[in-house]
Write the structure tokens for this entry.
Amino acid sequence: MIVASRTGQSLLGAAALAIASMPFWASPWHMQLASTALVAALFALSLQVLAGATGLVSLAQAGFFGLGAYTIYLLGSPPIWITLPAAMAVAGVAALLIGPLALRTKGFFFLMSTLAFGQMLFFVFHDTPLGGGTDGQFIQRPAIGFLVSRSARPMVMLLLNLGVLTVVYASLCALMRTALGHALQGIRSNENRMAALGHDVQRLKLIAFVLAGALGGLAGHMSTLTDGFVSPDLLGWHRSAEALLMILLGGIGALHGPILGAFALTAIQEAGSLITDRPKLIEGVVFLLAVVFLRQGLAGLWTRRGPGTPIPRPVMGAESNRDRGGKPAILRAESVSRRFGGLLAVDQVSLTLEQGILHAVIGPNGAGKSTLVNLLSGEIPLTSGRVSLDGRDISADPAWKRGSLGIGRTFQRTNVMRDMTVLENARLAAQARASIGLLRSAATDDLVQTAWIALDRSGLSAMADATAGMLSHGQARLLEIAMAQAGNPSVLLLDEPLAGLGPEESLPVAALLRDLAKDHAVLLIEHDMDVVFAVADIVTVMVNGRVLARGTPAEIRGSADVRDAYLGHGI
Amino acid sequence: MLTGVVAQLLNGVQYGLLLFLISSGLTLIFGVMGVINLAHGSLFMIGAYLAFAVASATGYFWLALPAAVLGGLAFGAALERTLFRRFRTRPHLDQVLLTFALILLFEEARSALLGNAFHSVPIPAALDFSVPVIGGFGYSAYRLVVLAICLATAAAMAWLIERTRIGSAIRAAAENTEMLDLLGLDASRIHTMVFAAGTALAMLAGALAAPLQSVYPGMGDGFLILSFIVVVIGGLGSIAGAFWAALLVGLIDTLGKAYLPQAAGIAVCAMMAAVLLWRPTGLFGRG
């Protein structure tokens, strides 16, 4: 997510000043129009917390907007210092109730279920007498704290809306720089990897959902305060879609995108109704063209997503990563099995991983090696058996929980946050386990330092500011390892870290593996026998989901069983 | 009292079957192409207006049904070729916005061509009588015919998908979008066919529904929401799931509207919430 550059912020500030000066030169009608655009911007900005920052496309947002609006009506128009927090609270609580249900789904299902939940809120006001009927109600507008004459209302509302939008935008800019903001962007980029790193993805998404809901309620509150009108249509899903259009029009990749989009949309609608009696037709055509051709939105016309702002390297103390202080870690798998339909992919496998020991698992394709890693890391649930870490049973813990307890892993196919920089990837890995507050800056020295140490150790420091998606295959493999260790885990599960590397590339990685085994319990899945026999302390041979043999590299090399069953020829 | 309940049950089944025609297209289009089509409800609306236009121009309502099917096939194929295929690999957000823009354009086109008035389409005279069902109470013959047409369509779809070569290609594609290429089938033709069929089904449903309710602007909206709920409850890409879920939603919505009008809309959404809690991938969904 791009937060506008200094120049961009200055331009936004200048626009805000221009709006603030409207009472000196503009008509009440124009001020009213500007208020409409400001409220629309606030609403779209609330949805950007989900759509742009977290990558969740929700169609329930208008429901929260409407709840905020109806709060004024339901409370009987008390003064604003009561209605404003009440509107945010009502919408936030509704989001807290709906969020856990809707967030059980992903992608297409999330979209559909948010649409249905949004409509459910719509029905509450449309079908029941609660909201005063299907046609809506004009309401007594709450007092704003000082005496406001009728004629001064457009001016006061303009300044109030501008103030609220400014405060919300500035707060969200700050939020994007916190650990929470970075974690949300990590989820947008690669949710599964964030979970594997140990981030509680569901909780983070719920936080975003509730925050967006409360801000949506705030927008609805400001809308009704401005217009003095509520109707069930405020909650209709068309409004959510319209907010998404504003975001797309302005730029989904930029925090200020929704503001640009809201003003652009208001301008298009006004222009449309001036030049034709079918403004919706103009709107539809503009949207169609925008969605087909304008991929990055208006913000994308003059900002390019370069690599993130380089973060200066902090002055470092000793390599603090290595010293965990506790006793050596032990991961134990006891008779773990996993069945896929009729196939027993992993059958009663037991193994122990200890700090200081590099335990390699080899076997032909389809032997169940990757499934075993996924069972240990919690990516897929056990059919039977038990996994424990330092004596604690973690068999039922999901992947993120195991990640947060100190199990780091790499993936066979490179699995990183592709649109973030190498350092940001490592920092998100470090952040997952460092118990820092979500609202602390993500750029705190200790996190950045941990990330740098991991990059140093993997030999990736020179690439720190490169975008992860641009790395060569070999560098991406190294980033996988760097991320696994940046979380300061006690156990490392490495699923074919050398896959696809040439001989000159694999030598330094093999040395790195040996180095990592000094202070981690390491499980290594690998096909290259030369590497395995060179670096492993213990080798387990798997065939057809079962353990065929286990021993030192010399024993395995000498075993007739293994030769017959697997190694076959040439060794 | 009892006869009233039976009538409402029949209404619920018939409404559910109409919902099935709409949502089976929605679920197939998503399953095979990975495209979310919010304009699917507008296609229903277009089918209803087509029926109104054909019936009032010619006086023969029945002509509207082949017109809706053939028009739907052509319209759907054109939409897929010009717009939707470009959006297969685009993010969900882009698909949502594309299809929302289409809703605006379809509604405007409808407004420009046929105006914004409410219309009613008379039930064809040949079927404008009651058929005695259980206990001597009468039920609209037209509604029974709609029920039969929907069931026949569902059976034809089941046969097509389970028993034919093209059906197995569609199942393969719904399982895994890349599968078609691997099997050496012409994915692009199958996408066009599926989208055209989905469009035709939605427009047929609209035409069939026209004599049962008024024809009015935005009438597709309620059906869109309900068919989304059907797809969520039934499970993505599952025709059988769409069938049973559509019946369930149709019954709950109809009975709710008859006996507890304030809570009907909420009840359907609450049922979806319950299914999500219990089985996030839907009743017939994979995984």
User: Anything to note?
Assistant: Residues 2-109+141-278 of chain B form one domain. The two ends of chain B are 43 Å apart (CA to CA). Chain B has one domain: 2-109+141-278. Chain B touches chain A at residues 30, 36, 38, 83, 86, 91-94, 96-98, 100-102, 104-105, 107-108, 111-112, 225, 228-229, 231-232, 236, 261-266, 269-270, 272-273, 276-277, 280-282 (CB under 8 Å).
